[in-house]
Specification:
The structure holds two protein chains of two kinds. By secondary structure, chain A is α+β, with helices and mostly antiparallel strands. Chain A has seven helices and seven strands, in the order ββααααβααββββα. In chain A, helix 3 crosses helix 4. The chains are: A alpha+beta, B alpha/beta.
């Protein structure tokens, strides 16, 4: 595909990188549903992540063209927010609270246990693909910390032992 | 006759310690015994150390049991808890539990009492009376009531709500907006979450009144993704309110229009800053804007916009319903009304305490909180979130009042109190404050973006004793630069926890070494 530019002559426009057909359909469906709302980009990125579990790199040019934005603008927003994933998640995502109220009741010790027992750091996924680990700064459970969110379910008073049980449950479920 | 009415909270924190499992166990056990019950999933009373709390309606009032675990449920049935009978977990009448009885619940009047999904329950408990009062007033009169009530922004900045509203009302525009800041990111706070999960209609009513007062016809609730239960509760309530004509093109037949929708954040603390929040709502990176122009004049999509915190908006209905004096008669000095305080962290009885301004930290920590959870001495508390100062025991007699806190170099913020016992390492807390700022900085201004990273490094060198006296001078100078030179509160307030930790707890920074080095 080419486009005329008065000052530069003919410049090539990069062909959109390929997104697997199923993902492409899902992204287009989300865009069609939401692109007319005011400030559509955030709802669309949420929609894509809800549908695919993450926002694939190759979805960026597609979303950009649907919203008449530049790829840089979409990438800029995608990369600004901690919640948006650029990589596929494991079967379960655990968000561990690192904030002060949880620190006061042992979150630092819990964090060390979590990383050691899973054998991963933040923003990584276990080798068996079961669990992705993310930090979070407050889950609003500050009177019953330490806190962790497993998928969308909050868990309070999480001791290392309780954490191991939650991991076992997560691994046992699909 | 229908069976016993039993309440088990649906609040996310209660769920986190097993409320759903308790509710399931009660349903199963009742069916097994052939006992007819009605199970209501209410908001939380905010007595978090007693969650999962189970209540049952009796002729004398609601009787509480807690904390209940699923394995105690059969036992409760044996004791006759569905008739309010005695049991080891029996706490008496809920309203008589001292922690609750001593409170002044205005904004939280219904939380924990009603079914948050039921508009009928809301109406049966004095709901929508504020809106009905507002519909009989012209916009300037509504604004005047909010101004006269003394209500100040509960998000942290404590700016008078009425002044903001008046600016939006006075700015002519074809479209205006009401934006609710529900990006409650401060550690040690959850009062917004409790309102949204436990009494979502009161927030919707408050926003609708704000729309009538300023001429705004569209509202947005900018909600953090970390609150999925609040999201569901709000969506359910908005649908019910729309269905019943409390929202939409013709609010209660008044000919006035107000529409409302929830938008989700995506894990950026900075989006709790109002201009970053507006950028995010517009679908952009959450970078802060220069002020002026104020959002009240050019806010969302360049239009006049009220941006208020959840608690601020949720406090409006009772002001319109009960009157200005009723509200402003609570409180002290220029801090009028009540503050929903969240007692959190290493504390025995953590929870939501709505009190008139003027209560002291000491009363909260010991009379309500019962001391630390660990049983060790309380060494420090952080008030006002991750940007709030750390206070030592010598300051525990400070009253909760915006000005009194400002006078000791601290801030009330959103009313969160995080308790630490004597095992806390205050140098580590100071370092964390800088680290957090580095992670969450939007990057727009240099003092915040770079200062926070340099701050971590300087604290590391200070604690390691590398030229410690010089590092301390450098750290104080850096903090001064951040305070004076940052564009918003993130960079501008991060030095408060750092400097307060250094001033009040110098021994944790190896300061005895510094003195020797200097001497």
């Amino acid at each position: 595909m080419v486009q005329k530019s008065p000052s530069l002559g003919v410049i090539p426009i990069r062909v959109e990188p390929s997104l697997p057909a199923a993902q492409r359909t899902a992204v287009l469906e989300v865009c069609a549903r939401l692109k007319s709302v005011a400030g559509a980009l955030m709802p669309i990125l949420h929609g894509v992540q809800a549908a695919l579990g993450y926002v694939p790199k190759d979805a960026v040019p597609l979303i950009a063209s649907e919203l008449n934005l530049s790829r840089a603008e979409v990438h800029g927003v995608l990369s600004f927010y901690h919640y948006f994933r650029k990589q596929p998640p494991g079967r379960h995502v655990m968000h561990l609270c690192r904030a002060e109220a949880c620190q006061s009741v042992g979150a630092v010790t819990l964090e060390a246990h979590v990383k050691q027992s899973l054998g991963i750091d933040f923003h990584q996924t276990t080798a068996d693909g079961a669990i992705s680990l993310e930090p979070v700064y407050c889950l609003g459970n500050c009177s019953l910390g330490p806190s962790i969110m497993v998928d969308k379910q909050l868990q309070g008073r999480v001791s290392p032992k309780r954490f191991d049980e939650l991991v076992a449950q997560a691994r046992a479920s699909s | 006759m229908s069976g016993a009415r039993i309440y088990v909270s649906r609040d996310a924190s209660a769920q986190g310690v097993g409320a759903n499992q308790v509710a399931d166990a009660i349903t199963t056990e009742a069916a097994r015994r052939g006992i007819d019950i009605e199970l209501v999933r209410n908001g939380s009373r905010g007595l978090y150390w007693l969650e999962p709390l189970v209540e049952v309606t009796t002729a004398a009032g609601r009787v509480a049991y807690g904390p209940v675990t699923p394995d105690r449920v059969a036992d409760l049935f044996d004791a006759g808890f569905t008739r309010g009978q005695r049991h080891e977990l029996h706490l008496g009448l809920t309203e008589d539990i001292p922690y609750l009885k001593k409170q002044e619940r205005l904004t939280f009047a219904r939380v924990g009492i009603t079914d948050p999904g039921s508009l009928k329950d809301y109406l049966d408990h004095e709901g929508y009376r504020g809106l009905k009062a507002a519909l009989g007033l012209d916009p300037a009169a509504i604004v005047a009531r909010v101004t006269d009530s003394g209500l100040r922004g509960r998000g942290g900045a404590a700016f008078p709500a009425g002044i903001k509203w008046r600016t939006v009302l006075a700015t002519p525009a074809a479209q205006k907006y009401i934006v609710c800041n529900a990006d409650e990111g401060d550690s040690g706070t959850y009062s917004d979450r409790m309102i949204m999960e436990g009494d979502p209609f009161v927030l919707i009513e408050g926003m609708t009144i704000a729309g009538l007062a300023t001429g705004a016809t569209q509202g947005f609730i900018y909600l953090r993704w970390e609150y999925p239960d609040a999201h569901m509760a709000l969506d359910t309530a908005i649908a019910a309110a729309t269905q019943a004509g409390y929202l939409g093109d013709d609010v209660l037949g008044s000919g006035r229009s107000f529409h409302l929708e929830v938008r989700l954040g995506a894990g950026a603390y900075i989006c709790g800053e109002e201009t970053s929040l507006l950028e995010s709502l517009e679908g952009k990176r959450g970078q802060i804007r220069y002020k002026p122009p104020l959002p009240a004049i050019a806010g969302l999509f360049g239009k006049p916009t009220v941006v208020n915190n959840v608690i601020t908006l949720a406090s409006v209905p009772i002001i319109l319903d009960r009157g200005v004096d009723y509200y402003r008669n609570y409180g002290v000095g220029r801090s009028r009304g009540t503050l929903p305080i969240q007692l959190t962290g290493n504390v025995k009885c953590g929870g939501l305490i709505e009190k008139a301004f003027g209560v002291t930290l000491r009363e909260l920590l010991y009379d309500y909180g019962g001391g630390s959870l660990s049983g060790r001495p309380i060494r420090a508390v952080q008030v006002g979130g991750p940007l709030g100062a750390y206070l030592p025991e010598s300051q525990f007699d400070t009253r909760l009042d915006y000005e009194e806190f400002a006078n000791i170099g601290a801030m009330l913020g959103h009313g969160g109190i995080v308790v630490f016992d004597d095992t806390v390492d205050m140098a580590a807390q100071a370092r964390y404050a800088m680290e957090f700022c580095a992670i969450e900085s939007c990057g727009k201004c240099t003092p915040c973006r770079l200062g926070s990273t340099r701050g971590v490094e300087v604290i590391d060198r200070l604690v390691a004793g590398q030229d410690a006296a010089k590092q301390e001078v450098l750290l104080r100078d850096l903090c001064n630069t951040m305070i004076q030179g940052s564009l918003c509160a993130l960079g501008g307030l991060t030095p408060y926890p750092v400097i307060s930790a250094l001033n009040h707890f110098p021994e944790d920074f190896g300061k005895s070494t510094i003195v020797k080095a200097v001497g």
